[in-house]
Amino acid sequence: KQEVTQIPAALSVPEGENLVLNCSFTDSAIYNLQWFRQDPGKGLTSLLLIQSSQREQTSGRLNASLDKSSGRSTLYIAASQPGDSATYLCAVHPGAGSYQLTFGKGTKLSVIP
Amino acid sequence: DVKVTQSSRYLVKRTGEKVFLECVQDMDHENMFWYRQDPGLGLRLIYFSYDVKMKEKGDIPEGYSVSREKKERFSLILESASTNQTSMYLCASSSPTSGGAYEQYFGPGTRLTVT
Description:
Chain A is mainly beta.
């Protein structure tokens, strides 16, 4: 059974710092990996989707990488801002014929002004 | 942009009541999902649907049922609400992209309290 782990559970950084959030998964046979952001009491917002054939995706100050063979993905946030404070979740799609995502429990990021 | 809407942001119900949570998506997506999210437990899949009138159980279907009569609408039903169903409920939808990936889009969530 696929398991997704995000360490650390919480992270606090000063404004302006570059940071990396980690996501690991136990079964490398994934179809794609998705990163989400969740603000308190709100739904999830999709940030980046990496297909299994891709190594990375970029959107603005965000860059997500995928290494299927090692079962790892990272989300890099450049020049962090207080508005980046949120919980970041990663989720993997297991493959064709399955519709379900397996989620990690998230990393709660606090960016201190 | 994909839009997924949920009928209520906050809902308070009494134990034993029948509760309906509605979800609508505007992008003609094939797949729709209901999750609940609880502190320390993360997101757990309750039910999903891959077509009109089709449904599949997720990880925690007990105490819930679903209905999908139209492609854009997916309803979650709590037949007899109990206090342990107090939670944040999240609806999502997806369809394959041109590259074959399934990107999920979420609604704003419904915070349900059962007293």
